[in-house]
Amino acid sequence: MSTLLSSLGRWSFRHPWRVLVAWLLVLGIAGGAALALGKGTDNTFKIPGTESQAGLEQLERTFPQVSGTSAQFIVVAAPGDRVTDADYKAPIERTVKDLGDVHGVLAATSPYDEHVTGMVSDDRSAAIVRMQFDGQASDVSAATKDTLRTAVSDLEKELPSGSRAVIGGDLFSMSIPAISITEGIGLVVALLVLIVAFRSFVVAGMPLLTAILGVGVSMAAIFAATAFAPVSSTTPLLALMLGLAVGIDYALFITARHQDQVRAGVDPEESASRATGTAGSAVVFAGITVLIALVGLGFAGIPFLTTMGIAAAVAVLIAVLIAVTLTPAILGFLKGRVAGRPVRPRRPRKGEKEARPRRPFSERWVTGVTKHPVLVAIAIVLGLGVVAVPAANLALALPNSGVQPQGSEARENYDLTAEHFGPGFNGPLILTGTIVTSKDPVGLMKDLGDAVGKLPGVAEIALATPNQTADTGIVQVIPTTAPDAPATADLVRELRSHHDEWLKEFGIDVKVTGFTAVAIDISDQLGAALLPFGIFVIGLSLVLLTIVFRSIWVPVTAALGYLLSIVAAFGVVSAVFEWGWFADALHVARVGPIISFMPIILMGVLFGLAMDYQVFLVSRMREDYVHDAGSRSDDRAERRAAALRAVRSGFTGSAKVVTAAGLIMFAVFVAFVPEGDSSLKPIALGLAAGIAIDAFLVRMTLIPALMAILGERAWRIPAWLERILPSVDIEGEAVERERHLASWPGDDSVVAADGLAVAGIVQGLDLRVPAGSALVLTGGDGTVRRAVALAVAARVPSEGRLRVAGHLLPGRAAWVRAHVGCVLVDAERDESADPLHELRDALRGRTSLVVIDGADRLTLAQSEQASAMLRDAAERGPLAVLATAADAPAAARLLADAGWADPRIRDLDAPQPSSDLPAQTTTDLDEVSA
């Protein structure tokens, strides 16, 4: 992957206009699609497979008057007045009649209707008018909402002075999130951090520009997707928040590596290529971890949350793609102007002849941490444990009007209803069931209502009635507690526990539903999904980090650090939103339960970001340890000292970038807290707290301490596990290998191999095939010859040095497979398999090499046609052939007929004179085979 990214970075650097125009075209197409296809967001929460959803679907079919969304307005009389007075009753009833004629309103119920009870408060100081709509809240037009607001406003003007009329209810409970000036302050802070990190205003602005472009593409794509799937209003803001944070950070990682290399004297084009191959590889890995965690939100089985995860994953994917393409392209515009202002040399102090070099703060920090690692580790663990204490009281609920900002119409209606009628009036529950077999449906529903009314937690039964066709009945239950109170959830569970009892007594298959019940079911399902999702995330981190670092302890410490970060972040959110700490400063509208999907989103996003920092810090430590001669010593003390040096040097080398990345993410996330949407506010605070804790306390303090305690044991891995793990290059080792071997082999060989090895078959083979020449390998057995042929054609992995057609393997294996043909001629072939067809495919284009295994197995007719095809290909351009054969003369005749007058034959059963092929070491395949 690193070599592919390196080539991509070089191409982007050379063609910056093409890359920039391409991304601008993508932005234009996505924006056009959003304008043409976008249908707006949909805040309807559905949760298939639950009792509440099944109940709503049943009501839609049999009792549509109560199945759709609802709204209400409350009238509060002036002090000393009663709403039953004529001054109130007449205008309220006239307004109710007018509202009943509004498009979309199925019914508007007067509080004075003789068939309705409970809509006038006990002290006659307030009355509620309820309206039922056809469909969900998203189906009600903005014009209808404006008509309702106008009617209620006009009513308030008709009422006696001092009275209030406020609209609200489910229809007005959802607010549409919006961007405020505070989010812009986060970007300004990010820019300041970048200016300090890069010491250049121009370079500092580059990550911001690329991140904003990526966010524009992802946001347009999300709004275009509303034509095909419902997207909640919180989804775009979550994608915006994540896209900005990771977009800035990913560009920062690549640009910082590029700037360091240019300062060290590396050519800008070469530096951009290396930076994209090394830092870009880590960016891709980090992005993949975030993608997997976000897509894993589907564990909860809730459609709107799955959509939210996919949308956020799209934003992260676009950020990764822009980082590895547009970032090197913009570096191509800047050329060498990225070094920034030089650091001023330190002036000598009094009494000093020369100023001693200033030790970086990161070096002093990690030295202090690793001097007393046990004490540091204990302090961090205990400290974060204390921060996590409030998480024990974490309560979850979906947002309702009660979390809207003070002064909003929905919040005023919610508070007035709770004050005059009790908190339960803001979240009634509905019991429904089929009563088609009943002979007395009215009496049956009254008896069921009486039974329900006796349960603890029930304030009153507002309605118990059958529908017009007497096949379905409903009981509307007013709880004694608010919709998001834990006691209301307990009441729902209590009602459901009586299902069998009421089925036996009344013959009704009762379902508990309504908006409040749906919200409770969603919260319960999300809570149940936290443990499997946590196991998935932590298990994923263990697997991925074991593959990357070839270690057992590094993944374990990373996972433990992640757990500490996540529970501490939960503790911070709970302290603010449930305990009320700093609630006023952060403009928290109401202290109480936290939005249900905060924990699972926080776990998924923080996992990916934590792995970012883990990879960037610890990979540098691993690199320094591997390159330290002490790591290969037989003396354990020397190995331990080498491990400690690697921790300190690796931390010092990467701390500046990780610090800047952590500060930027914190600034972006925390900017969404003070004025953010009530649904997004706890998520943003959790992410900001989690990033600060994970980056600065866990990754930059606890992890170095634990690595110092573990010493050389941190890099151990069982041999059996090492063998089965795939090799993943996220540190750009292949790019560095290509740089070190850039001048090897130093001749015009199309194939050059030194110490070529194929696991279990070939060991230590040296080989050269000059450009335009032909070589026949013979000797050994067919397995060894085929293994060599497949290794040269990059069809099987190999070890040692191997360069084919100018491309070093295994890093450039994908290019070699695409441009070097390989023909396998078997002794017993399927009749449908045609070696000539394979050869024709292999010779397409302007390939410089073709590999033919078993050339002597071709029939006479096939050999003649193969010679003609090879001859034609050689006339188009220089062509080298590597053939293997048991019968070398037969293969040589084929090549001679094709135009190679004197093809070389390497008899691997006997020593080959070195003069036969310059710079070639004669090797017997029988000797090198395993």
Automatic annotation (TrEMBL):
InterPro entries hit by this protein: Acrflvin-R (IPR001036), MMPL_dom (IPR004869), Mycobact_MmpL (IPR050545), SSD (IPR000731)
The name this protein goes by in its record: Membrane protein YdfJ
Please state the protein's primary subcellular location: membrane
Per the record, membrane topology reads: Multi-pass membrane protein
Question: Can you say where in the cell this protein is located?
Answer: Cell membrane
Top-level taxon:
Bacteria
Any one cellular component term from GO for this entry?
plasma membrane
